Every structure is written in C-alpha cells, then in structure tokens.
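Let's practice the habit of predicting before peeking. Look at the sequence and jot down your guess about where helices and strands might fall. Then scroll down.
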Amino acid sequence: MTFAHGYQRYAPALGAWLLGAMLVCACGDSASDGTTAATGGTVGVATGGVGTGGVGTGTGTGGIGTGGIGTGGIGIGTGGIGTGGTGGGVAPVRVPKFSAIFGEIITKGSVGNCVFGACHGGPAGPKANGGLHMDALDLPGTYAALVGPISTSTLCTGKTLVVPGKPEESLLLLKLRPSPPCGVQMPLPTPLPEDRITQIETWIKNGALND
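Done guessing? Here is the structure:
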C-alpha cells in the first residue's frame, strides 16, 4: 500500500481527531479565561483616610489658631480669643474748687465733716471749735471765715487758716494731716481720705479762689 493510498484511507479519521483536539483546547482556553476574569476581574477600591483638624488655642487678645494636617485631609483649626485682664477701679476726679470742697467735704449737704453736731457748725468759741464757725447754708460766709483769717484757737492761735498759694503755711491743711503742729488731727472722729486732702491742697496751691 502506497503513502497516497494510506493517507486517503486514514485522512478522515485524522481530520476528525485534529478537530476534536482543537475544540478541547479552545474550550480549555475559554474556561481558563473565564476563571481569570472571575478571579482577577474584581477591582479593589482604596479608601482615603479622613483627616481631622487640630483645635487652636488663644494666646491673648486675638489669638491665632492653627489647623493640624490629618492623613488624607486637611483640618482647619479655630483660634481662641484671649481677653485682657481687668484693671482696678479708676479713682474719681476731685475738682479743686471751693464750691466742690464746700459741698463735698465741709458741709456735705447739711451734715458734713466739719459742721456736724457741735463742731464748726455751732457758735464760735476758742475752745469748742477754735473760734471757727461755718454755716452749711452760707458758702460765701464760710469762704470768708477760712481764707485769710488768723486762728483764735487756744492751741493754734496766731496761725493763718488758709494762705492762698501756700498750702504748707495753711493751718486748715496742716490740721487735716497726721501730727498737726497744734491740737489734734481733724475732722473727728474720722480723718479725710488722702484724695480729699489732695483736693484741698491743690485748691490752696492754685490761689484758694472763691470758685
């Protein structure tokens, strides 16, 4: 039997075998591809972290806050507002004028530091009140009794009550301070606060005007 006769005899069977083998390979490749698609086809989605901002703290008036930087985000901080310290009370302004001194210190209405009870509001006498009388309703008369006259007091006689422009020589001011040159410190029973004494001193220094 020649090669040609053998080929013609077995060619159909060989063709069928090759066709089957090709189909098997094709199916296997398809199954493999399908498996790959099923296995590797899922795409993972990464999630970004959420950053949180730091909180700023105030550092005095108008403090500036700073924002921290978180992973995956930028935080925004807020600055605190500082407040200044509270200062002490402001001392009241004492007007160095006789009208103010008369109304706020000497008489203080009708019962002041100097005319209350049996003090200088009573009749003048050398021992009771050093011969100095001041009327709570008579500002001009009180001014005349203070500025210029010389004391007739038993202990302070010869000393001028108010010498315009010279507080250091004015008996009125000297009697308001501790350890006066004669007698006791006035007024009784409670001495004047320093700001009131300074008010009278400034008035005398400015000329002891009837203002």
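How did you do? The first strand starts at residue 69 and ends at 70.
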